[in-house]
Description:
single chain; alpha+beta; 4-stranded antiparallel beta sheet; 1 helix; about 35% helix; about 45% strand
Amino acid sequence: MENEFDDLPNWLFCVEEISAGLYNLKGKHKSSGANVNLTGHHLDDLLREARRVALDMDAKREAIS
């Protein structure tokens, strides 16, 4: 399952259920290649955390540019 967030247009997040109720979320920035990789039992929590990490990474990348 692929997920995108309106405020993160350069990121693509893919979720795979790797075992019953256990999810692996991989996020990748489309141009910089930055990655987020999370595993857990609560999909909504994983999506929130991946979004938070990606926003933080974008902010840091912009600050050094």
